[in-house]
Design goal:
about 130 residues; 7 helices; mainly alpha; about 75% helix; single chain
């Protein structure tokens, strides 16, 4: 197969153009699902973690966008806790008590968003290389 996107069939071009957005949309949907279903349970497990409680107090009660924002902050703190643990903004014991099923959904949703972005950026670079 030729790497030049101009030589690809239309269906393949469309898949490579819209596929990343579909993958990212699924990841965003998973975060919205967790924001509606699991946010209160997750926030209840972090009473001493400053990074989570500070945002939760400001954004918790409100619209789906507010809950989505808090869930995104919690996901980033749970998946990449290093900096927050070093600075003392995140309690390691509370982090270890996050239910495995919720943590797995967090990892999958973040992975889908990252994968979709990398896919789109790679396709964009490929198109720019062959222009």
């Amino acid at each position: 197969m030729d790497l030049n996107p101009a030589a690809w069939p239309l269906l393949l071009k469309m898949c490579f153009l819209f596929g990343p957005f579909f993958v990212m949309f699924v990841g965003m949907g998973m975060i919205a699902y967790m924001a509606c279903r699991d946010l209160d349970k997750v926030l209840g497990g972090f009473p001493q973690s400053q990074i989570i409680t500070s945002y939760a107090d400001a954004w918790r009660g409100g619209s789906l966008v507010a809950r989505y924002t808090v869930m995104s902050i919690v996901i980033s703190a749970v998946i990449w806790p290093g900096k927050h643990l070093r600075k003392g903004h995140l309690n390691a014991e509370e982090l270890n008590r996050v239910p495995v099923s919720i943590k797995r959904r967090m990892q999958v949703s973040a992975g889908l968003l990252i994968f979709g972005f990398v896919w789109f950026a790679g396709f964009f670079v490929l198109v720019e290389l062959y222009e």
